[in-house]
Design brief:
Elements (H helix, E strand, L loop, with lengths): L2 H8 L1 E3 L5 E3 L1 E4 L7 H12 L4 E3 L7 H11 L7 E6 L6 H12 L4 E6 L10 H9 L3 E7 L3 H10 L6 E5 L7 H9 L3 E5 L11 H10 L3 H10 L5 E3 L4 H6 L10 H8 L19
Parallel strand pairs: 3-4, 3-10, 4-5, 5-6, 6-7, 7-8, 8-9
Antiparallel strand pairs: 1-2
Helix pairs in contact: 2-3, 3-4, 4-5, 8-9
The structure holds NADP nicotinamide-adenine-dinucleotide phosphate.
Length: 278
């Protein structure tokens, strides 16, 4: 295992419920169930990642489970997230099905994938899933400031995490500030814009100046804000590259130049376009 890899798994952030989340995770959205998914997760674990992000909607929980078992890495050393598919009705029953597919006793984080049908109805079921021991931490994804506040107002246990689209181009400052104020850890998904941000001229310029790749610059921007980040690749060399983030620093000037790429106006919204019925 490389030194960078050890670092990749080792850096964590505390959650309000007392658990810890590794700052870097591998995501498997759009990776078909089967050997491609098994390989990506196995490589990540070999390279020192200790955080894997899947979802009921991705259809690949079985492969994530196979990779975990084949890797030989101890279950308790890997932070495993899955997401409740909110077109279904019962978060606790769906969590149990996820555990069967994954072949594990519990996940580390279980989050509502998006606030379909409103932000609050699923939360009691999420709390039940935690009480039943199906998940160590529970949280949400794609929730705006106002939606988080509605959950907070009713919850006995607050969401530990809000996983949202977050990058220099989607620098949702008001959402980040609101999360920080209320003790919710904002987690970044699509940090590379699903690949689209990698060819940006400014990002490329900064990457050239610091002698790193555009992907590393975009991921490092999250880490310097203490924002846990989920990145996807199915290529071994890229999975390795994306974990080599702990031996360089972006200057304040570079951080500010990246901040200026924001296209959301520092919004408190989680998405500009929502794909789910309200
Ligand atoms: N909660 C939600 O609603 C939600 C929504 C979207 C995503 N997510 C999570 O966040 C994860 C990451 O987001 P994402 O999948 O949208 O994409 P992303 O991580 O922003 O970007 C992934 C894309 O960039 C490419 N890539 C990765 N590393 C690279 C590198 N070093 N150099 C060049 N290209 C590179 C990948 O290609 P290859 O794979 O071909 O290498 C892929 O096309 C997802 O997998 C999922 O787990 C959650």
């Amino acid at each position: 295992m490389s030194t960078d890899g050890v670092e990749a798994g080792g850096r964590v952030r505390a959650l309000a419920d007392g658990n810890e989340i590794p700052l870097l995770g591998l995501g498997v959205w759009q990776v078909p169930n089967g050997s491609e998914c098994v390989k990506a997760v196995r490589w990540a674990l070999e390279l020192g990642y200790r955080h894997i992000d899947t979802a009921q909607a991705y259809g690949n929980e079985e492969s994530v489970g196979v990779a975990l078992r084949e890797s030989g890495v101890a279950r308790e050393d890997v932070f495993l997230t899955t997401k409740f598919y909110p077109a279904r009705r019962d978060p606790a029953a769906e969590a149990q099905r996820s555990l069967r597919r994954l072949g594990v006793d519990r996940v580390d984080l279980y989050i509502i994938h998006w606030p379909q049908g409103g932000p609050t109805w699923a939360w009691p079921g999420m709390e039940r899933a935690r009480e039943l021991g199906y998940a160590r931490s529970i949280g949400v994804s794609n929730f705006d400031v106002a939606e988080l506040q509605q959950v907070d107002a009713r919850a006995s246990a607050k969401p530990a995490v809000n996983q949202v689209q977050f990058s220099p181009f989607e620098y949702r400052r008001a959402l980040l500030d609101a999360c920080e104020r209320s003790g919710v850890v904002l987690e970044s998904y699509s940090p590379l814009g699903t690949g689209r941000h990698l060819s940006n001229r400014k990002v490329q310029q900064i990457a050239d100046a610091v002698g790193r790749s555009p992907a590393q610059v975009l991921l490092r921007w999250c880490l310097q804000r203490d924002v846990p980040v989920i990145v996807k690749s199915t290529h071994r060399e890229r999975i390795a590259e994306n974990a080599a983030l702990f031996d360089f620093t972006l200057s304040q000037q570079d951080m500010a130049a990246l901040d200026a790429l924001d296209r959301t106006g520092g919004t408190g919204r989680a998405r500009e376009r929502k794909w789910w019925p309200a």
